[in-house]
Amino acid sequence: QVQLVESGGGLVQAGGSLRLSCAASGNIFSPNTMAWYRQAPGNQRELVARMSTTLGTYYSDSVKGRFTISRDNTRNTVYLQMNALKPEDTAVYYCRYESPFSGINSWGQGTQVTVSS
Q: What dihedral angle (degrees, nearest 10) is formed by the CA atoms of 83, 85, 91, 92?
């Protein structure tokens, strides 16, 4: 199993910035993918950004140019730097780990991001 612990959410005004962190521990295999999803009330969970050792980096159109995903493999941690935040970015943000080699996939517990107008 892989455990994911997120941090860094909070309340911020529109135009502000937040940095989310997700620390992974347990049976971590490479290659793997770490990603950030979000889910707003009444909406489905959606992929925000993904960083894969084999597939590269992906951003959804709604965050491209504002959010940056990065990872520190020495600390098994993935980050999401969120700039120019908008009220529509308000959601619970979830970290995701996927390892096709081991078949282990995990979700974090989620961290709330609220952007006020």
A: 20
* Residue from 104, 85, 72, 71 nearest 14 by CA: 85
**Which residues lie below 8 Å from residue 87, measured CB to CB, with a gap of 6+?**
14, 115, 116, 117
Token output for 84: 């120019």
Strand duo 67-72 + 77-82: pairing: antiparallel
**What's the half-sphere exposure (Cβ side, CA atoms, 13 Å) at 18?**
22
Name the token pair of 20: 């989310």
117 residues of the chain, pLDDT tens digit each: 999 999 999 999 999 999 999 999 998 888 899 999 999 999 999 999 999 988 899 999 999 999 999 999 899 999 999 999 999 999 999 999 999 888 889 999 999 999 999
Beta bridge partners of 95: 36
